[in-house]
Amino acid sequence: MGTYLNPDNIEFSDTLDNVLYVDKSLLINHMNTRIQFKRKFICVARPRRFGKTTDASMLVAYYSKGCDSKKLFADLKISKDSQYPMHLNKHNIIFIDIMEFYSCFNDIKEMIAYITKILMMEIKQEFSYVSFYDENNLSLSLRNVYSQTKERFIFIVDEWDCVLRDNDATEEKKKEFLLFLRTLFKTQPYVELVYMTGILPIKKYGDESALNMFDEVSMLDPLGLESFMGFTEDEVKDLCKNNHVDFKEMQLWYDGYHFKNGVSIYSPRSIIQALIYKECKSYWTNTGTFGTLKDYIRENRDGLKDDIIELLAGKSLTVNTKTFQNDMSKFSSKDDVLTLLIHLGYLGYDSTRQEVSIPNKEAVEPFVQAVSQLNWGQPSIAFNNSMDLLKATWNLDEDKVAQYIEEAHLETSIIQYNDENALAYTIYFAYIAANNYYTIERQMPTGEGFADIAYIPYNPTYPAIIVELKWQDNPDAAINQIMNRKYYYGLKKYKDNLLLVGISYNKDAQSEDYKKHFCKIIQYDKSL
Fold first, then answer.
1. From residue 57, how far is each of 93, 95, 268, 278, 477 by CA, in Å?
2. Beta strand pairing status for 191-198 and 153-158?
3. Phi/psi at 184 (nearest 5 deg)?
4. What is the DSSP letter of 514?
């Protein structure tokens, strides 16, 4: 048993001790089929805090000859698989967390030399009877082991892309690191399986991948591993049920990463933290990454600013993900920036429609913070005014509400008003501050129809709000529709603290009120 060669199972054992552990052990079955059919190379790219390291430690515990993990897996799903005993603790494992080494070395050559040195110490101890031609050459030394013993190795490499994610790393450094991995893995007889995890897919140079032997699993194309990219919706439902937490609120905060076959996943960190603290708020977005969202969108490449505004208004946008070179510092178009944000988890991707959107409430916050701090003129001002708009609504100040929404419309003029659906995008944009106080539901089924927008407060000291929109009409008609169709019925628990808001927009070019917004606000009177 070593630290890097055939390590123990303590890390996975500690994970299992967590009462909120979610069983992802069937991933092992997928890896076993790769060993069987010699599909040796897989690279899994997921956003930070989406369970990559936990999966890596599970694979180490299952395959490593350096431990006995039978008890750890006895009650997990994989233990029911007929192939399960065949590989349990029967393989040589080399486990490397690249970040562990990269954080200690600025020079790539020195880092590679150190990785080689510490691995060779353990390899020579384990295979003391093997003759090595050059102990400073890791791939050659592993070939020596294989040629003299026929022993092969499973490589599990965590944070493989940390060098490539470092914007301060030169192209020379990146290429040298990729060459090290290529030499270590490609066409080597000692390789039984390579499982790499990171945030980015493998770096491309032009149209070629430096490690083109890998199958690349990503948020764009999970290659059948959708259910292992995070917590599935069913898993979150079970966790909520067992911990007496409202699933619907979890869904609004953390859902939004959808794949072709209907699988929807959630950030494991966010779900676990929300269950521990019994509160939904931003957990994942506070963990940080190389660079910040603001850095990626500040250039306004190809009109990216307008795209961000539309995304914040609730729209989905078409994106071309094909040109992205899997590099965090070089972009040829705004599509490259949007594609990076998919890999980082800030955006969700619909592969069927090839569209991006801001996936959930948690992901809205960093966009709001970024735009508020950028010098984007009126959009930044509109965000900073959003809290004043919300307060004006609470204070029943109809003129102020109409004014702020009209100003926000000027900033979302890229969204052409032609129906109430388009008007709703402006409302989302203008009331962006409401995300901190409310669960927001569009087309909420209630009474005798669907309320356009409902704002349901986290804290009952704040009023619940129903907003009805009218395009080419007046706000009184909107209020009458709320009352006549009993939209308030779905919020009857807030009947003592409920605001009904009607908002209209005049698109009649012949009218003196052309392009003006109007507002009517009343407190719901339960006696009516």
1. 11, 9, 16, 28, 60
2. parallel
3. -70, -35
4. T
The amino acid occupying position 450 is F
Q: What is the pLDDT of residue 74?
A: 96
Whole-angstrom Cα distance, residue 473 to residue 452? 15
- Inter-CA distances, 219 with 24, 200, 260, 369, 490, Å: 18, 10, 11, 24, 36
Is the pTM here over 0.85, yes or no?
yes
Cβ contact 468:486 at 8 Å: no
Cα 230 to Cα 7, 9, 287: the distances in Å are 25, 22, 16
- Spatial neighbors of 336 by CB under 8 A, at least 6 apart, are 323, 324, 325, 330
Q: Are 228 and 268 in contact (CB under 8 A)?
A: no
Q: How confident is the model at residue 447 (pLDDT cuts 50, 70, 90)?
A: confident
Residue with tokens 């294989």: 146
Element (H, E) at 171: helix 171-185
pLDDT at 207: 56
Length of the chain: 528
Token couple for 140: 């050659």
DSSP 369-386: HHHHHS--SHHHHHHHHH
As beta bridge partners, residue 446 has 449
Contact 153/189 with Cβ under 8 angstroms? no
CA distance 461 to 214: 54
DSSP 316: -
Once rounded to an integer, what is the mean pLDDT over residues 372-401? 85
Q: Residues 24, 56: contact at Cβ < 8 Å?
A: no
279 and 439 Cβ atoms separated by less than 8 Å: no
Of the candidates 276, 493, 506, 255, the one whose C-alpha atom is nearest the C-alpha of residue 405 is 506
CB 130 within 8 A of CB 149: yes
